[in-house]
Write a structure and sequence with these properties.
This protein has helices at residues 13-38, 40-49, 55-75, 79-97, 105-131, 138-143. The chain is mostly helical and 144 residues long. It has one domain (13-133). Helix 2 (40-49) packs across helix 3 (55-75) and helix 3 packs antiparallel against helix 4. The longest helix has 27 residues, at 105-131.
Length: 144
């Protein structure tokens, strides 16, 4: 059975897959962070509607996480730390903004789906935190 990772250091498949994975995950965080920048007041209002204290501070932290860490993760600079930061951010906000257990029946299915998708994203981010961004990253170039 073929494997994606071999002992041959010339195999680029894991690095290409890591790059694709970083692009796909970052494509969720970076636009969301930018949307919070251009729609800051709306973001603050939405955060406040969930009963979160200091909504302006939380909105700024969300921008820093999604846009800042998202960009670092995309280019693979300090990617393990960026992935860990995004994983923690996502794990913290998920039960606040996708609390399907406290919603009307008509909203449960969609919010439960979002909740479980976020947990899967946390899992992917933790894998990057554990194994790194691969050679096709700024971290990978610094090691070479």
């Amino acid at each position: 059975m073929p494997t994606l990772h071999t002992n041959n250091s010339d195999s680029s498949a894991p690095d290409i897959l890591a790059l694709i994975g970083r692009v796909l995950i970052a494509s969720m965080f970076i636009p969301a962070g930018w949307g919070k920048v251009v729609g800051f007041a709306g973001t603050v209002g939405y955060i406040a509607s969930k009963g979160v204290p200091l909504p302006e501070v939380c909105a700024a932290l969300a921008i820093a996480a999604e846009l800042g860490l998202g960009l670092l993760f995309l280019v693979g600079f300090q990617a393990r730390w960026a992935a860990l930061g995004l994983a923690i951010f996502t794990a913290v906000i998920t039960p606040i903004f996708h609390n399907y257990w406290a919603l009307p029946e008509a909203q449960v299915m969609m919010q439960k789906l979002n909740f479980t998708k976020n947990l899967a994203i946390v899992g992917g981010l933790l894998a990057f935190a554990a194994f790194g961004a691969g050679r096709l990253s700024l971290d990978g170039r610094r090691k070479a």
